[in-house]
From TrEMBL:
Region entry Disordered, spans: 379-398
Name recorded for this polypeptide: Uncharacterized protein
InterPro entries: Quino_amine_DH_bsu
Domain of life: Bacteria
Organism: Streptomyces monticola
């Protein structure tokens, strides 16, 4: 018997999470009073499960959308959550803290969660919204990616587990210098490599015992840069969206966008133009990459196939969408996009309208349109899973 995919839809402002069966749209679970950390996002675990952080309650939630109850465990962690990542076994989850509703970074707390024991330890690292990866099997390294000054900071699992109560400061076991403008993290578990996106390109380092060895930087091959990285575990590639054009955010309709794909087997990089406007996070289906593009002249779902051909599908306009003369970040509606590497479905939200549109990535046809009980402020956030889709091969929260 085949289990239908499950779509988790979150309104992180309204405190709502709903699980829908795909493609029929049947609700299988819902929660209220749960405020997802949208920046940290969802992190896929083996067996179709996922974790996320409830910002208001300060809990790491282990979610099982295919199980008899949605919340399989809830473990206290430090918030506001900035990034989360796990090791290849899915046992160890690291959560860093960031800005929250503050003008500048203020928290230096790092939480390491042992999902097998249902326990966690907290230590102090360094203020500054660090990225994180948990590198390696068995005895992983917790690697923080810092900015200003930039560095990979390596923490040993044993040092973290030996930390006493009281959130003590923890000195890194080793550090590797990076540029100070890092933003975007990924891990390749097959070869024990960690990646960080900077203005100069994608910096990479390989695990060597209990430290990291720097490897050649992967260039963007463009005057633009990526602010986001994700691993495609199915096709063994890194993906990003390169943003170029004017630095002034008010001129966002003039921003250029390129899909950046780097094949980890051949070291070959390809660039595909996506058009002007706001393009950010992407989602990966069985055979395609999916992006959304927001622009005053019309929004689109963009489906990029293996031949790097772009299919452009118009999306209905959003009330409260970013406008000319304003920024695309503050007080506006946006879109979330979700897909599973084990399926051909792509889901896109219509922020402020409480709508989810479901497309067949093979044909570009809209197959369903659902209304959820909340507006999906800021576009909400989504995750699409099948039980054995391999999405857990991407070990960083999205």
């Amino acid at each position: 018997m085949t289990t239908a995919p499950r779509l988790l839809v979150s309104d992180h402002v309204g405190g709502f999470i709903q699980v829908l069966s795909v493609p029929d749209g049947t609700e299988t679970a819902r929660m209220t009073g749960r405020h997802l950390s949208e920046h940290a996002g969802f992190l896929a675990l083996p067996g179709g499960r996922a974790v996320c952080v409830d910002e208001r309650r300060g809990e790491l939630l282990v979610l099982d959308p295919f199980g008899p109850q949605l919340v399989a465990a809830a473990i206290p962690v430090a918030v506001p959550a900035e990034h989360l990542a796990c090791d290849p076994t899915g046992r160890w989850v690291a959560v860093t803290t960031g800005l929250g509703k503050n003008d500048r970074p203020w928290s230096d707390l790092l939480t390491l969660v042992d999902l097998a024991a249902g326990d966690a330890v907290r230590v102090r690292c360094r203020v500054g919204e660090p990225g994180v990866t948990v590198l390696g099997d068995g005895d992983p390294l917790v690697v923080l990616r810092h900015r200003e000054p930039g560095a990979f900071a390596v923490h040993l699992l044993a040092d973290l587990l030996a930390a006493p109560p009281g959130c003590p400061p923890l000195t890194p076991h080793a550090c590797l210098r990076l540029p100070g403008d890092g933003h975007g993290d990924a891990q390749d578990p097959l070869h024990g490599r960690v990646f960080a996106a900077t203005g100069a390109g994608v910096h990479r380092a390989r695990r060597a015992g209990d430290t990291l060895l720097a490897e050649p930087v992967i260039p963007w091959d463009s005057p633009a840069r990526g602010w986001y990285l994700r691993l495609d575990p199915r096709r063994r590639a890194l993906w990003s969206t390169l943003r170029g054009g004017p630095a002034d955010p008010v001129r966002w309709p003039e921003w250029t966008n390129q899909a950046w794909r780097h094949d980890l087997g051949t070291d070959r990089t390809t660039l595909t133009d996506l058009g002007p406007g706001l393009v950010f996070r992407l989602a990966l289906t069985k055979d395609r990459a999916a992006f959304t593009r927001i622009h005053p002249d019309g929004d689109e779902l963009l489906l990029l196939d293996a031949g790097l051909t772009v299919r452009r599908i118009p999306l209905p306009a959003m009330d409260g969408a970013p406008r000319r003369g304003g920024t695309p970040w503050e007080g506006v509606q946006r879109r979330a996009v979700a897909a599973s590497p084990g399926a051909d479905w792509v889901a896109v939200t219509r922020g402020g309208h409480g709508e989810v549109h479901l497309f067949d990535a093979r044909t570009g046809a809209e197959e369903a349109h659902w209304k959820v009980p909340t507006p999906l402020h800021h576009g909400g956030h989504m995750l699409l899973r099948t039980p054995d889709d391999g999405a857990e091969g991407d070990l960083v929260g999205r």
